[in-house]
Amino acid sequence: MPLTKLVSTYTNAMPEFKIKHVTRYTYESPVRESVNHIILYPIEDQFQKVIKHTLIISGNPKVDVFTDYYGNKIGFFAYSERHRELEICSELTVGTTPKELPTETMFSEMQWMELEKLRYQVPYIDYLKWEAFNELNELKKVTEQYLQAGLTPHHVAMDYCQYVYEHFKYIQGVTTAQTQIDEIWHIKSGVCQDFAHILCQMLRMAKIPAKYVSGYICPNKNGIRGEGATHAWVEAYIPDYGWLGLDPTNNCIANETYVRLALGRSFTDCSPVKGVYKGPSNHKLTVQVIVGYDNGTSDAHEPFTEETESVAISAPAAKGNSYRRNLELMQQIQQQQQQ
């Protein structure tokens, strides 16, 4: 099968993006004692700088912030008053710097030997754990097909990215945040998070460390898939280079037009908003992302309903203060993130 080359957006410019991300929970009747966990603070490093960040939350609660095991900045807040709507509005101005692409400075065999050494190094262990599932042997045949050609890890990663792009259909609504990898593999369909999960699995099975990344595509006026919401892609570790961003949803390298919010092993580590509350189980979550450009224009999309990770605590719950129970639950989540 002929392989097309992934296109990079590498330039010498330093793009600056304005992003507005609005998350709104609407409940069928008043709820209270809402405790929430948010990952809406972009990563800051030599390739990405936060110039300005404003966070506005219903009820103006105090937000406690900590950094988890994967380096993500996490916000934690409680909203105890009765309310029928909870809105979290994050407004960002972010500057990005393009990252030069990998060059082949080592022989292929040496690069694979370097990757073999990472299996026992703590910073990479979590990003090498792949998931067993029913059709694992079928996926193994695909991953091994590319390894037999003697290609470098860089080229194998690019080929895997293209494979996912070509063999999986982008269809919204056929999967959820809880969909397992075996179902994604079976239906060969899904959205960006599903594409990212499959690519992570392939890379890890090939002993290439892979991170799941969530964030935004900026600008998103080019009609590429994943616009109008948070997006997901992958970072693969390339010897003698570092982490290379790959977007299997669009078959391209994720460079300076991608703004990173969080990274981890999977969607579970990177969910922008999750929490618990006391009240009725029926609620609606809508999310809208608006991206501003250098010329002052913006790309706005209609709000859409997204998978929610907000859990209702029923009224006749166990003995004790319900707010304290909710708080302890979120603290357990925090502790798990730090382990």
Rg, please?
Answer: 21 Å
Encode the helix/strand succession as letters. Answer: EEEEEHHHHEHEHEEEEEHEEEEEH
Q: Report how far apart the termini are.
A: 43 Å
Helix-strand category: alpha+beta
CATH architectural category of the largest domain: Sandwich
Count of spatially separate domains: 2
CATH class of the largest domain, please? Mainly Beta
**What's the rounded overall pLDDT mean?**
83
Largest sheet: 10 strands, mixed
Q: CATH topology of the largest domain, which one?
A: Immunoglobulin-like
| Portion of residues within helices | 10-25%
For the secondary structure, the number of strands is 17
Low-confidence residue ranges: 1-12, 299-327, 333-339
Number of helices in the DSSP assignment: 8
| Global morphology | globular
- Strand % is 35-45%
Domain Transglutaminase-like: 184-250
Protein name: Transglutaminase family protein
InterPro entries: Bac_transglu_N, Papain-like_cys_pep_sf, Transglutaminase-like
Record keyword descriptors for this entry:
C8orf32 fold; alpha+beta; disordered C terminus; 24% helix; disordered N terminus; 339 residues; Immunoglobulin-like
Walk me through what this model shows.
By secondary structure, the protein is of the alpha+beta class. The chain has 2 domains: 16-96 and 271-338, Immunoglobulin-like (Sandwich); 108-254, C8orf32 fold. The chain has helices at residues 108-117, 122-125, 136-147, 153-167, 181-187, 192-205, 267-270, 322-338; strands spanning 16-41, 48-57, 64-67, 73-79, 83-96, 169-170, 189-190, 210-217, 231-238, 242-247, 252-253, 258-264, 273-278, 283-292, 298-299, 304-305, 310-313. Strands 1, 2, 3, 4, 5, 13, 14, 15, 16 and 17 form a 10-stranded mixed sheet that branches. A hairpin with a 5-residue loop joins β14 and β15 (298-299). α4 runs antiparallel to α6. The longest helix is centred in the C-terminal third of the chain and has 17 residues, at 322-338. It is globular, with a radius of gyration of 21 Å. It comes from Pedobacter hiemivivus. This is Transglutaminase family protein. InterPro entries: Bac_transglu_N, Papain-like_cys_pep_sf, Transglutaminase-like. Residues 184-250 form the Transglutaminase-like domain.
